[in-house]
Design goal:
mainly beta; 1 helix; eight-stranded antiparallel beta barrel; 8 strands; 131 residues
């Protein structure tokens, strides 16, 4: 029994010493670039619960959906003073590159990328909780 209490104590100390950011989302929306209107206005979305667990130093995060889990590694960051947002240039565990924006003021996570057909897109996740 003493070993069980020791194990629980060690787990609790480890959990408290490693703080990370946890984000929950409830909806995702894909918007593709429309070359005629020159806007991201070809959009479609659906309800989906997902989570983002971000490392303490924001050097990587894990995105979990009901059907997959991916890790994204930060290659560089860039702060935009006009919008007061930080852009995270990342590479996924599958080798794909994206630009992430965590917009706390609007409760959104936006991902800029290019799909397999070389079409630019924005994927927006609508946030239900920031922890």
């Amino acid at each position: 029994m003493k070993a069980l209490y020791t194990l629980i104590f060690i787990f609790a100390v480890f959990s408290l010493s490693y703080s990370q950011t946890h984000i929950e989302t409830y909806y995702r929306e894909y918007c593709y670039w429309n070359y005629y209107t020159e806007k991201y206005d070809d959009c479609d979305g659906y309800a989906e619960f997902s989570t983002f667990d971000i490392s303490e130093d924001w050097s990587y995060w894990v995105h979990t959906t009901p059907i997959m889990q991916s890790t994204y590694y930060v290659l560089k960051t860039e702060y935009n003073e006009d919008y007061e947002l930080t852009y995270y240039y990342v590479e996924s565990d599958a080798g794909n590159n994206y630009i992430y924006v965590f917009d706390i003021m609007n409760n959104e996570i936006r991902i800029f990328g290019v799909n397999k057909e070389d079409e630019p897109f924005i994927l927006t996740f609508y946030v239900s909780a920031w922890e």
